[in-house]
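By convention, the token line describes the chain's fold. To illustrate:
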Amino acid sequence: MPIVKYPRATEPLWHEWDGKAQKRGLRHTVYAVNGDQYTGEWLDNLKHGKGTQVWKRTGAIYSGDWKFGKRDGYGSYSIPDPVTKEYKKVYTGWWKNDRKCGYGATFYPGGERYEGEWSGGLRSGWGRMYYRDGSIYEGQWLVDRPGGQGMLRLPKENRYEGGWKDGKKHGPGKFFYLDKGQLFEGIWAADIPKCGILIDFGRDEAPVPTQYPIPKV
């Protein structure tokens, strides 16, 4: 019986070319049409793993973890100074789905900085904020503002400890006037003390105590 040989099936050349064009694993710098550039690892044509992205329009740089094309994991984001052109770190910490999420530190213009928890790109959870005037807030945050329980320490060491809502003192709290040697304990609403009691507190050690002590009831 004669043996019939059929020609071996071959895949079209475009299949081979397409396979070579797919970005997988570690690649050298890849340039986008808009001038952005990425150097790092890929998976199925998406940034995935370790990599560094440079945005041409702003000059910003992200270096860290990626997951399916988005910043996800640990990484740092920096921008160039408009005058010196030197890079300044803006955020270092954890990301999820291209947004700050988890613990991280953000550096603001003028020397202010935040260290603490994030959710969906907003300060949320526990955190500490260092303000330009020397004040420090430490406590709970909600939707990018102090919310919950927290302490605000002012430059002269006076401080407030208590409730916060929408970035303002709200609910039960204590305000320590350490420069005068007094303590106010009461209820706040939208940053305004509504009711409470004022007593002497450490008056003998206060740098500028009031002229007369508060009479005891």
In short: DSSP finds one helix and 15 strands in the chain. The chain has a mean pLDDT of 90.
